[in-house]
């Protein structure tokens, strides 16, 4: 009898061949931190994505159980689990998209920056593996503090000579998801009809919703603007406090991560007009990274859009955001350079 491993290898090859022949796209996706609070529902949702043909689940704990469980779902993607640092390279080899929710989450009273000391090292190690094994993959980085972990990843890739700024994307989709939800509540409409650009970064005042650019066009009173901006900026803290020590947003984050990953895969496939906000390398401000609307295509974030006209409230917010962002970005860069 062939071993489980041989069967798995055979089925992966068979499915990839079959997809190649039919011209149907099938992307290979790895999730690093797949056994965590975000990782598990994210793995579940990616297993349901018809654009995914191979799904690699990597973590330093519990991946065999999560993988066995998810692999019984009767959807197309073939799932394979990888446990521990010695299996990182096999998890990464040949992947088109890497999603990284590895790292510790906040507890009440902590800022995202308080996670830096532990998560910076985790992101560094994972990105060294990516540079070695799949330097052309698109990277969706979720681990906090995103404002610093994205610069860390960029520095690791630069050091390895593999840095492609279009392919490194800090995931800020949860800010957009929250903004759409809270704005829809105020307007009394279905959140699916609302599109709120959120720019800047992913922590407190660096999260800058552009309420003057909401689609469909609408207007807010000064009180509504203040309420919505604060609620969107503090959305993560709202969940951290409600979970009271049991972690931060996981389910809404898995939803947001899949929404963003799916947009990246549709871009890779060649679909036109895919535009989402992400924390990327940009020349939109004087800062080297900034969350902006980006057009996603075969090469990653192929076009970064300007901020567009801001009102006075947003201009003041932008200055505050840039001040904190500059420090967080520098902290990430220094972590690798020194
Ligand atoms: P969690 O503790 O539930 O899960 C994290 C997982 O990472 C665990 O399974 C852990 O074993 C794994 N891990 C730790 N070190 C690793 C390593 N070296 N390699 C691979 N895996 C490793 O945490 P969570 O709630 O899933 O949150 C994960 C991260 O995502 C946190 O840093 C959190 O702040 C961040 N987050 C970001 C956003 C965002 O919008 N970008 C939203 C929510 C949470
Ligand atoms: C979020 O916005 O929910 C995440 O960044 C997690 C956190 O610490 O708030």
Automatic annotation (TrEMBL):
Reaction catalysed by this enzyme: (S)-malate + NAD(+) = oxaloacetate + NADH + H(+)
PROSITE patterns named in the record: MDH
Subunit text: Homodimer.
Enzyme Commission (EC) number: 1.1.1.37
Keyword NAD tagged: yes
Residues that hold substrate according to the record: 106, 112, 144, 178
Active site: 202 (proton acceptor)
UniProt keyword annotation of Zinc present: no
Source organism (scientific name): Fraxinus pennsylvanica
Gene Ontology annotations for the cellular component aspect, listed alphabetically: chloroplast
Residue stretches making up the Lactate/malate dehydrogenase C-terminal domain: 172-335
Broad enzyme group: oxidoreductase
Sequence positions that bind NAD(+): 33-39, 59, 119, 142-144, 253
Gene Ontology MF terms in the entry: L-malate dehydrogenase (NAD+) activity
Pfam families per the UniProt record, alphabetical: Ldh_1_C, Ldh_1_N
Lactate/malate dehydrogenase N-terminal domain boundaries: 28-170
Record-stated family: Belongs to the LDH/MDH superfamily. MDH type 1 family.
Keyword terms: NAD, Oxidoreductase, Tricarboxylic acid cycle
GO biological process: malate metabolic process; tricarboxylic acid cycle
Protein name: Malate dehydrogenase
Cross-referenced CDD domains: MDH_glyoxysomal_mitochondrial (cd01337)
InterPro entries: L-lactate/malate_DH, Lactate/malate_DH_C, Lactate/malate_DH_N, Lactate_DH/Glyco_Ohase_4_C, Malate_DH_AS, Malate_DH_type1, NAD(P)-bd_dom_sf
